Amino acid sequence: MTDFFAIVHQYWMLFLVGQYPHGALGGLANTLLLSVVAMLFAFPLGIVLAMARISPFCGVRRAAAVWVYVFRGIPLMMVVFWTYFCVPMLLGHDINGFATMACTLVVYESAYIAEIVRAGIQALPSGQYEASRALGMSYLKTFRLIILPQALYNMLPSLISQLVSIIKDSTLGYVINVQELTFAANQVSNQLLTKPFQVFAIVALSYYVICFSLTWLANTLEKRIARQRTRPQGGVPVAIAAPLTPQFIIKEPK
Fold it and tell me: What's the CA gap between 186 and 171, in Å, rounded?
């Protein structure tokens, strides 16, 4: 136990921010930054893919389905290597490891977020869509002002859980020299040589604390949303309406 505290006391800055400010940002700070950047860009892409999945146009639906099924069906490591070798070829110049891993996570996680968004949209009562269309609102305006705000609120626990997955997936950036927490731990282990178990146990504990905290937040939000769904209004419990069916969503009214 003394070794753990001694390692943390001596190398806590390296674990936290890497070589910064005398070098590139790394460690836990870079892990969280990479995860947040990936989530911020994957989320709008996931919304677009979800909208495409329930689009009234067959070609758009099929193209989005191919994207989702392909990236959900292959290991993340393969996407990391594809991005690492293909993106420089497409751009004509090299990009750093952080940008490579960020692009990888955006593309890969967008497939999972798309299914979360699609499920949230289809879980809403069909009357929401019918009423807005009856008022003369366009298809896109209906989703932007009526459907998505409600669906996103219901999806918050799932999105936070997906952020947990992104944080854990970011550890694969180590293979392309992204200076995240695992990379910093390897630097510390190479300096100490004889204490790899203690070093990587500290890293595992760090990931556990972060992921457990986010999971607890997701569970708390899920319980709160569930209570609000069943909260009585005027003494009468709220009824659970029938969900939107894919057939109804994708069919444009004549």
Answer: 12
Q: How many CA atoms lie within 13 A of 158 on its CB side?
A: 16
**Three-state secondary structure string covering 26-63:** CHHHHHHHHHHHHHHHHHHHHHHHHHHHCCCCHHHHHH
Dump pLDDT digits (tens) for 29-51: 999 999 999 999 999 999 999 98
**What is residue 233's three-state secondary structure?**
strand
> Between 181-192 and 2-17, two packed helices, what is the crossing angle to 10 degrees?
130
User: Are the beta carbons of 55 and 67 closer than 8 angstroms?
Assistant: no
pTM: 0.82
Task: Name 233's bridge partners.
Answer: 236
* Per-residue confidence (pLDDT) for residue 37, from 0 to 100: 94
pLDDT tens, position by position, 52-86: 998 888 889 999 999 999 999 999 999 999 888 88
